[in-house]
Amino acid sequence: MIADDRALVDRFLDMMAAEAGASKHTLAAYRNDLDRAAETLGSIGAASAADLSRLGSGWADLAPSTVARRSAALRRFFGFLVDEGLRRDDPSSALPRPRLERPLPRILDEDEVRRMFEAAEDRSASGQTGTVRNLALLELLYGSGLRASELVSLPRGAVRPGQPFLVVRGKGSKERLVPISTRAEAAVGKWVEHVPSNALWLFPGGKSHLSRVRLFQVVRAMAADAGISPERVSPHVLRHAFATHLLSGGADLRVLQSLLGHADIATTQIYTHVDSSRLVELVNSRHPLATRIR
Fold first, then answer.
1. What does the domain layout of the chain look like in residue ranges?
2. 99-137 pLDDT, tens per residue?
3. CA dist 134 to 120, 184, 291, Å?
4. pTM for the whole thing?
5. DSSP assignment string, 181-245
6. pLDDT above 70 (res 274)
7. Which homologous superfamily does the CATH classification assign to the domain defined by 110-282?
8. What is the average pLDDT score of the chain?
9. What is the rounded CA–CA span in Å between residue 195 and residue 186?
10. Which one in 150, 158, 175, 232 has a CA-CA gap of 20 to 30 Å to 61?
11. Which class in CATH covers the domain with range 3-94?
């Protein structure tokens, strides 16, 4: 990447961090995508629509999701250049726009989740530190729909007795309120007794907090204890189960969006496909015309 391009990319990423609240992972992904485009084009700051059209053939063997991500990075970059008056035209219309079909999330049914809780509760009854922690992890994953990164990075005092919500810092460092069930509060209360009073994290591990990799391993082990294939279960699967089962119970989609911390309602709408039969039942039973007699 030439020096002028590097300076433009640095300015763009500074804007993304300051104005859009982009995380370090997002900024690194944008930089990587822009660097790769520069390798092909020689210069991206001065690239024309004809130059960008050359990228499509070079991306032919990439997954549609990768093409979409790289195109999005370049579109946002050129939009920034135009907004800042650094160029007059936006050539990004020449970039490919692959149509993506969002895969339906894997979920567990309510009986399988119940079995995981029963197994975790049986083990926790021993009072052993690891089993008490695991039950608290499970309660927060399924009971509050937290992301793995949000869960492991909770501070020690995140869950307070009698406080029905906790504040979670999610993607893009955006904060949201997450409800805490009485079950989760009780499980965390028992776990906190095992956490040193000077610990920074609710779930300490090594020199920092519990890692996402270790959380993944713990969740799979709990699935195996419940007689469920570990390959089917992960922290994110439990988050999906939280969302799907709430929707099955009649939760409003906008409320679900807020609970999950989705910036776009379209991300939340995928759960309407997962539980379409339940939605049909709700329309037939609760719509005002459902009880109308001819």
1. 3-94, 110-282
2. 655 555 567 888 999 999 999 999 999 999 999 999 999
3. 7, 12, 47
4. 0.58
5. -HHHHHHHHHHHTTS-TT-SBSSEETTEEPPHHHHHHHHHHHHHHTT--GGG--HHHHHHHHHHH
6. no
7. Intergrase catalytic core (1.10.443.10)
8. 83
9. 15
10. 232
11. mainly alpha
